[in-house]
Amino acid sequence: MTRLRPIHNRVALLLAAMTVAAALALPFLGFAPNRLLSGKAIALGAVPGAGWSGAALLPVALLLAVPFLRPGRAVNALYVGAGVLAAAGLVWLAGQHAALLAAVASPAARTSFGAGFWVMEAAALLAVLDGVRRLGLGPAGRVAVGVLAAALIGGQFAAGHLDQLSIMREYANQRDVFAGAVLRHAALVAAALPPTLLIGVPLGIAAQRSAAVGRLVFPVLNVVQTIPSIALFGLLLAPLSALAAAFPGLGIGGVGPVPAVIALTLYSLLPIARNTAAGLAGVPEPVREAARGIGMTPRQIFWRVEAPLALPVFLAGLRITLVQAVGLAAVAALIGAGGLGAIMFQGLFANALDLVLLGAVPVILLAVAADAALKLASALALSRLGRTAA
Amino acid sequence: MISFEGVTKRFGAWTAVDNLSLTVAAGEFRVLIGPSGSGKSTVLRMMNRLIAPDAGTIRVEGEDIARLKPETLRRRMGYVIQSVGLFPHWTVERNIAAVPDLLGWPRARVRDRVTELLTLLNLDPERYRGAYPHELSGGQQQRVGVARALAAEPHILLMDEPFSALDPITRGALQAEMAAIHTATGTTIVFVTHDMDEALALASRIAILDRGRLVQSGTPLDILTDPADDRVRDLVGREEWGLKRLAVETVAERTRPGETAPGDPLAAGASLRQALAAMVARGTDRLPVADGQGRPMGALHLADLLRGPDRS
Amino acid sequence: MRRLRSLLTDRLALGLLVLAALVLGMPALKPLFAAAFPALDRPLYEADGFLALTLDHLALAGGASLIAVLLGGAAGIAVTRPFGREFRGILDAVAAMGQTFPPVAVLAVSVPVLGFGPAPALIALTLYGLLPIVENTVAGLESVPEPVREAARGMGMGPGALLWRVELPLAAPVILAGVRTAAVVNLGTAAIASTVGAKTLGLPIIVGLNGSNPAYVIQGAVIVAALAVVLDAGFDRLAARLTRWRPNAV
Ligand SMILES: Nc1ncnc2c1ncn2[C@@H]1O[C@H](COP(=O)(O)OP(=O)(O)O)[C@@H](O)[C@H]1O
Ligand SMILES: [Mg+2]
């Protein structure tokens, strides 16, 4: 029973292995003479390790030790702390080295994150995730850890420490375009919301009340949902162009933001209608019966009983819709709808990889933010119903 | 057939089974009874090595089961649980054939065995063979569960509260079928229940557990007439003790041979409890008794019910 | 005659028929496109054959889905066994989080890390496809009722028999739903992958959009849409087959 067991945390061991392999085998940074040429690899070992740079790697070393430490609250707290500091430290190190290189290289030269950086950064963040679970932190604790990590990394952006990294150089060049693209992206997603709700919610209610409507509506919406966005944009091109030719004054065309919003709406109908119907179907029949029994009118039953009980499931549908729409809006850039996708595809077509990141990374952040916001809203709705968030 | 020698099982700090020694003889219908959490399921599950004991030895047919491969051991035993656990993606036939299939029986033999078992458990083979579990009622599902356990002709059948989730009428019918199956096959049965009526109706011997210890072991009559302590008296039910006592003895044992009495005769195999009910219903203190073929055997007097058991 | 009728009401067969006609017969529609878009010099996409594009498209989306099924299935099984349970939480978190990332953004981000071309696209699609498959494999295996497991062990099934005969068949409908999600997403993302250097059916669409040639766009889009409908019908068929034992099965 007292068998020697030197590995106490196999998840941490895997992450440590990932980190070591990435540090040894993958480039930490890439250095290119200009934004279009591919760069030469800079290994972690080639990054000067003296002074503060060495200190930035200390939490990484701590992470490597965690699998061998006897588990307990202190070790798990160390695990989380080292993960957060390692994630921030790796970013710091990259920014530091980029600044060093920028001081001696030509102004056109670019220093970018390498695959090694990404793997090590991912390992550090996963360590935080795993450590938070092992610590058994509640929602408040989790948010605190998240805010700390975001502040440590975001602070470096804000302080200009990362200005010499290529993605920030690209941002500096595109500052105005970027701000416009973010706004346009959000506007596309927001514009699709009213028509989605106005059509989707009544469809969902009707489908729940009548099985025949459900049998008619859901297969159609399902097929729409299956058709890839790029194909749907293409298929809308012909009818909308024809419409534009027939009524030039409408401002409708085969390309641009209008078809994008139409397509986004078509895609969003399924999750909204389906979850509206599912939420209503989930209202227990005895509850409805009781409402009828105390003399509520059908309208009162809907607004006072069914709607509040169906709200959490509905919000889950809204979350799916919004997260999906953020991605679809990026594809819509291909039909000239603008937004962050435009930056991303411009980068892909021009082989400007920093531009790709400048478009794609904010798309991911937007989606994650939409997801988190709607999850919070669901949790609040659930807690108002006196249930615990599942 | 099965013996426990000083068996202990702990879950963390809780001792679920405490230094238990117990034997189950071949052909016995042994019922384990005790309050919830007393360790009955743990004892049963150690018999087929679903749980390993911390201390002590368990032998089955003379072999220390710790030395056997668990799968081999289990294929020799039938196992029936309260929640049935039929495989929902298999038909009734395939469910019953599960162990014979694992043992590699030939197809034709498996098919015949399925037919035989469905008939034994009062399910029409042609109607139910191809049905899926969700198409059956709770009682029918448990019938299939029992058939599945009996499929490979096990020497031992382990049953953990198999009928507790069923309605009283279905439960009664399945109890009668189990008694008949036990008589017909002679299989050793270990049966867990928390229902004393069920235990008294089925058991040839009862073992009473409390907090993982053996409180008393004996025939139903022993338990009723000579309870080891208050826990046993509680389990038997102080107020209904008399009726339970009557339920475990048959009319034949108290019949006065050769006497006659007016009215429809009682069956010799009926319980004394049924006899009392008949007397109250008919407002008489004497009833005639007939044997299995309907031949008069004698008469039963109300006063005979009040005597203690014959210790002759 | 009867066979013809059943063919026309069978969505899968009909879809396959339409798909084949579109892929092979697109050149025959050239006069139609010429008449519809008289302003275009080249009303038919002819830089690559549609059959070749379709096969490449299927190889990318199907290959990625297949690898994702193997890896994701293995990971899902591993974390529900005693030896892998420790990895369960982190895998769940990654699968849930990763699925909020828009696939097109994942594809784009993979380019700076992995480079242009079909192989990086395959890796990106595979990684993305893993998430729903892992999630559903875990959910499916966990949905197997404990009494069913107990009965299987009690009758002498070893861990292997339990997994293959009981757990996986019972989890199959849920796992299939995950595979379906992955395949549908991969089919669409593979079209967009022609922007990162993989030749797929997205190519005529992209070329048409960039060169203001709506005929190209429509030619690519109808074939992709037909593929999607066939995929959907195929998964419906498969799901019906895997759930025959369920209470509400038809
Ligand atoms: N796998 C287990 N882990 C922890 N405790 C258990 C486990 N199985 C049983 N126990 C505990 O052991 C005791 C006996 O359980 P059990 O044998 O199931 O009782 P019974 O079947 O008599 O109701 C109970 O207190 C129960 O909580
Ligand atoms: Mg029990």
Q: What does this molecule look like?
A:
The complex is a heterotrimer of chains A (390), B (312) and C (250). Chain A has 13 helices and 3 strands; from the N terminus they run αββααβαααααααααα. Chain A folds into 2 domains: 10-164, Butyryl-CoA Dehydrogenase, subunit A, domain 3 (Up-down Bundle), CATH 1.20.140; 172-388, MetI-like fold (Orthogonal Bundle). Chain A has a 3-stranded antiparallel sheet. With 390 residues, chain A is mostly helical. Helices cover 38% and strands 25% of the residues of chain B. Chain B contains 14 helices and 14 strands. In chain B, strands 6-7-8-3-9-10 form a 6-stranded mixed sheet, sandwiched between helices. A 4-stranded antiparallel sheet of chain B has the order 2-1-4-5, with helices on one face. Chain C has one domain (53-242): MetI-like (MetI-like fold, Orthogonal Bundle). Chain C has helices at 2-9, 11-25, 30-36, 50-79, 88-98, 103-114, 118-142, 146-154, 159-192, 202-210, 214-242. The longest helix of chain C is centred in the last third of the chain and has 34 residues, at 159-192. Chain C is flat. The two termini of chain C are 26 Å apart. Chains in contact: A-C, B-C. Chains A and C meet through α1, α4, α7, α8 and α11 of A and α5, α6, α9, α10 and α11 of C. The structure holds adenosine-5'-diphosphate and magnesium ion. Adenosine-5'-diphosphate binds next to β2 and α1 of chain B.
Write the layout of secondary structure elements.
The complex is a heterotrimer of chains A (390), B (312) and C (250).
Chain A: H1 10-25, E1 29-32, E2 40-42, H2 51-65, H3 73-104, E3 110-113, H4 115-135, H5 139-158, H6 166-209, H7 211-226, H8 229-246, H9 257-281, H10 285-293, H11 298-331, H12 340-350, H13 353-384
Antiparallel strand pairs in A: 1-2, 1-3
Helix pairs in contact in A: 1-2, 1-4, 2-3, 3-4, 3-5, 6-7, 6-9, 6-11, 6-12, 6-13, 7-9, 8-9, 9-11, 10-11, 11-13, 12-13
Chain B: E1 2-11, E2 14-24, E3 29-33, H1 40-47, E4 55-60, E5 63-64, H2 70-75, E6 77-81, H3 92-96, H4 98-103, H5 107-120, H6 125-128, H7 138-150, E7 156-160, H8 168-185, E8 188-193, H9 196-202, E9 205-210, E10 213-218, H10 220-225, H11 230-236, H12 241-247, E11 256-257, E12 266-267, H13 272-282, E13 286-290, E14 296-301, H14 302-306
Parallel strand pairs in B: 3-8, 3-9, 6-7, 7-8, 12-13
Antiparallel strand pairs in B: 1-2, 1-4, 4-5, 9-10, 11-14, 13-14
Chain C: H1 2-9, H2 11-25, H3 30-36, H4 50-79, H5 88-98, H6 103-114, H7 118-142, H8 146-154, H9 159-192, H10 202-210, H11 214-242
Helix pairs in contact in C: 2-11, 4-7, 4-9, 5-7, 6-7, 7-9, 8-9, 9-11, 10-11
Membrane topology (chain C): Multi-pass membrane protein
Protein name (chain C): Osmoprotectant transport system permease protein
Subcellular location (chain C): Cell membrane
